[in-house]
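Hi R.,

Quick one: here's the Integrin beta sequence you asked about.
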Amino acid sequence: MVDSFKMNLLFAAVLLLCCRYNTIGTQDHSDHECQSQGVRNCGECLAAGPHCAWCAEENFLEVGQHMWERCDTASALLRRGCPLDRLEDPRGATVLLKNLKITFHPKEQRHQQRHRQVTQLQPQSVLLHLRPGEPQSFEVKFKRVEDYPIDLYYLMDMSFTMEDDLPSVMKLGADLVEEMKNTTSDFRMGFGAFVDKTVMPYISTAEDKLRNPCKRTEPWPCAPPFTYHHVLSLTANGSLFTELVGEQRISGNLDLPEGGLDALMQAAVCEEQIGWRNVTRLLVFSTDGGFHFAGDGKLGGIVLPNDGKCHLHENVYTQANFQDYPSVTHIAEILRQKNIQIIFAVTKEVSHLYEGLRSIFPKCAVGTLSNNSHNILQIIVDAYNALTSEVVMEHSKLPAGYHISYTSHCKDHRPMHGEQGRRCSNISIGDEVSFNVSITAPLCVTASQRPSRVIIKPQGYSEEVEVLLSPICECSCQKDAVPHSPSCSHGNGTLECGACRCKEGRVGTFCECNQAELSEVVDPYLCHRDNVSGVCSGHGECVCGKCVCHKSSKKPNHAYYGQFCECSDFSCDHYQGLQCGGNGRQVCAGRGDCHCGTCVCHDDRFQGPTCELCPSCPSVCSLHRECILCRAFSLGLNHLECEMRCAHLNLTLLGQANDLATVSPSSGHRCMEVDSEGCRVHFLLRTGQKEESIHVHVALERECPSGPDVILITAVLSASVVVLGVALLLLWKLLTNIHDRREFARFQRELEQRHWTRVDNPIYKSAITTVVNPKYKEQ
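And here's the predicted structure, written out as tokens:
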């Protein structure tokens, strides 16, 4: 009974392992990352990849095998005979260390509850055991609970231009307390004021201006200039807020920008003086001017950078004239650390300046003040609703190489990824949203690493999730190491996880060689095939004067072999995507043997690098052509001869040639032959080892050449004659035109070259004849 129980338990474990790896063999595609030639122990094997496992069985390897052959996928190691209980393949895990449930305090119970601890974020602490390269995920829930406490600090610009706003702020105390009763029963508010640094050129240092920078006495003089005064710590007494704000007097300065960032820094870092609690923290910043920032202090001769520390003495900022203004990014980082959400209540003229800060500050809203700030209450209420209706998750700096991703599930229940996976909007009181957080560890740098710490939290909230990151860099079998084990050549090494870790001076898989006895010159020489090749032909390592060959880095099932690792059964040429032109595991197309990368064909008729060529052999398509023509189309052979010679064919008749594409092409030949009528016949031929297994899919529709189109031919010939005649006429006309132009040009040249002389024409005869009368005598 016990043996049967053990067998069932072992069988169940194997089934679980098979399911875990999606059936044995499906992870073999990742073998190459496990069979890295640098793997020397179990820890390095785990670091090689998330699918890698180590066989810690002592007798798993034989003499001559390499240490890295213990590292493979779990399914491959099991197939090779590794016992299941000696398989080292730890998986990552998520452990919830602190998981307080989200609390919800209805309004009708808020006065009865004494315990004010409110939880909006779950869980609070998580431990992740991370296998390198394998992500671990956990869910973070957030719920905007009812009656959550709120602290609000009002920081006001007290320069002269804000004088008409002070009465509205005085009324703010009682009105805001009354308004916030609809949201929370635990509301506190405080007040602070600022102007600018009290040195030139920010203020006038004339003695009278230092006493009264406004030059007036009615209805009262202005207050001396100051940088920042903390007036009222956070309190639930709205009347006290109104009273102390009413006692404040306007001051003045020279330039338009104010020293608001100095005051903002002190209000954020002086937590004890302000009275900040770990609740919702709001800071209202009210002004009608811009702000000085880091570097502007040089104008007043102040070059020391702002240190971001609290410097309040008797509620006055004491380092204003010694430290520069803080930078915008410095303020943003402090607000993020202190979980303060800021509301800028500014006038329309400068609102664009503060709108630009929204992309820098973690949680920020901007409202436009009216001329006398009478709308300040509405600005605060609207900004608070906008800020608290959106949840944006953020995290502290991750250790080098770690990766984190978020997937949000908001009110619409649609998962969002990437940057949108960090946020949820339009959250009302009572709404619950969740974020799936996934963290992936990098490869282990050292053998052991202490857990790192990462903080995940929603922006502007004090609650956070502490995440402890514990990378899995060691195997459980390492604690059972046996020093001076007899299995390691009579105590010359430590047996750790089934492998020998040799002591100094010993080498070999089982520490069987003495390094001192091996000559540094002779040992590598024994592993050289010739004077040109490298050690073990570059495919192995020289151990104890012998080559220990590697497996292929891409396909570990393919191994190098030979005395110098010079041979392999996978370096033969591939034909049609198959090694040596074969099918499956066939080598050299099944017609030869692969010897050291060269196919030696069995039959002299076959040739080629993969024995795939046979010039004198008929093709498989031509071999069955006559039978297919007579069986499917009654062409060629007579009926009786066709029945006798072609009965072994199993025919499936299809309609068109395109239908052959729907037939599974495995182990088949796509053929096209021409019949006696000149038509093309398409068929798919499947051949097996026996003649009876031949199956043919034939397309009945033949592709026959069509007859000549007389009309088309006549039309083409006629058109050709016409076109040719027109072309000849055009050519004749062109040549005639060219000849006439040349003759005319010659005539023009001769005309221009004529020369006429004024001499008697030798052939000229006058038309007048003179006759002399012989009888005439001159008197």
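Confidence is low (pLDDT under 50) at residues 1-31.

Cheers,
M.
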